[in-house]
Amino acid sequence: MNGIALAGLDPWTAGRVLSLAGFYGAALLAVGGVLFRFAFPSLPQRETTVLKRSILLAVWAGIGMLLLLWLLQAAYLGGGNWAAARNPLLLGIAGDGAQGDRLRLAVVGLLLLQANLMEGRFRPLRHGLSMMGIGLVLLAFAQVGHTRGDPRLGGLLVVHLTMAAFWAAALMPLYRLAGRRPGDDSSSRLLAQFGRFGLALVPLLLIAGGCLAAWLLGGRLSALLYTPYGQLLSIKLTLVALLLLLGATNRWWLVPAAVRGAPNASRRLRGSIAAEGLLMALIILVAAGLLTTTSPVG
Amino acid sequence: MATRSGKRTFMAALVALFGLVSQPLWAHAHVTDTHPDDGAVLEQAPARLELQFDAPIRITRFDVSGPQGAVETSEDPVGPPSERHAAVPADTLEAGEYQVVWRGIAEDGHTMSGDYRFTIQE
């Protein structure tokens, strides 16, 4: 019997993991991009334009990935075939309940985020709508899994994801700013400012994520080694540790060196930021695998 | 930076949303029992095949296969969320090895799958 196993890694499950990871990545970049614009209103015009384009791209990629995930869920529930992906009953089941709530909240939230990209009048309304979009997308994440229906766990997840989204979306603008010529005061100021943000962001990210992980493991550290969920979570935690190491290297070594105009510092900083992006992509992939293929201890 | 009115709107929206989406806590479902037991060797054909969970789950597939291939069932467990799902074979099962393969979705949105086997002796 394979009672508590959620799913084997057949092609349909692999597809669901990839599309869920795609949604996670796109939604976090869209939410984080808007948060970054709020936090850094003095971003150079050229960077603002690139960031707005990337938010728009992330919004529609996120919606596309969610719709693909919906089809793949129906296909999986029907035994793993494309005919099931077109079965109205199975599409209804996959679009109902927890999965359906996530789909609806995320799509509405992502659409609302676009208010942040508009220019001109009604600025408070645009800000209000885009902030509501942020709230809806983050709440969408809490609709599936153990956080569903538990405001405390859902709140922890929202805090964790807010910090993660901000960090993830900051990487591209920081990468571009780090490539500007040495002595560019505005770039140096923004890089240093992000470093200060990191001092508040990282502890919140870790505390919220740590509390969630401890609860899902039933407070047993040994579950990290002896349960499939714990083993996959261990991989995620290792990747997070590497990410923190890179973040600390940037904050206390590479950014100050780049601001001073030290030789090769900008190149190293850009390489380090690119490595952070790669690690984040892997973390998102593992997180999608955690939700799709394994079950927490409880 | 966000305006003060924007921040207030955001906080109000967040509080309202938490209120709207606060629902009963849905635990993840696990299999607690099957009928026949997994690996059971039976002297008589079972009248029904059953899956039991510790929380409601919606079964979307319940396939039974035996020595003659796919087994037809007169009652199908595919339906609304429940902790207990049963299928009744259309005809008395012949001797041989059988496998039940199922898929479903728990109320917390997790998709699940599993299988169990039993044997009917000659």
Automatic annotation (TrEMBL), chain A:
Stated role: Involved in copper resistance.
Taxonomy, superkingdom: Bacteria
Span of domain Copper resistance protein D: 189-290
Family the UniProt entry places it in: Belongs to the CopD family.
Gene Ontology annotations for the cellular component aspect, listed alphabetically: plasma membrane
Alphabetic keyword roster: Cell inner membrane, Cell membrane, Copper, Membrane, Transmembrane, Transmembrane helix
Subcellular location: Cell inner membrane; Cell membrane
Protein topology in the membrane: Multi-pass membrane protein
TM ranges: 20-43, 55-77, 125-144, 156-177, 197-217, 229-248, 269-291
GO BP annotations, alphabetical order: copper ion transport; response to copper ion
Protein name: Copper resistance protein D
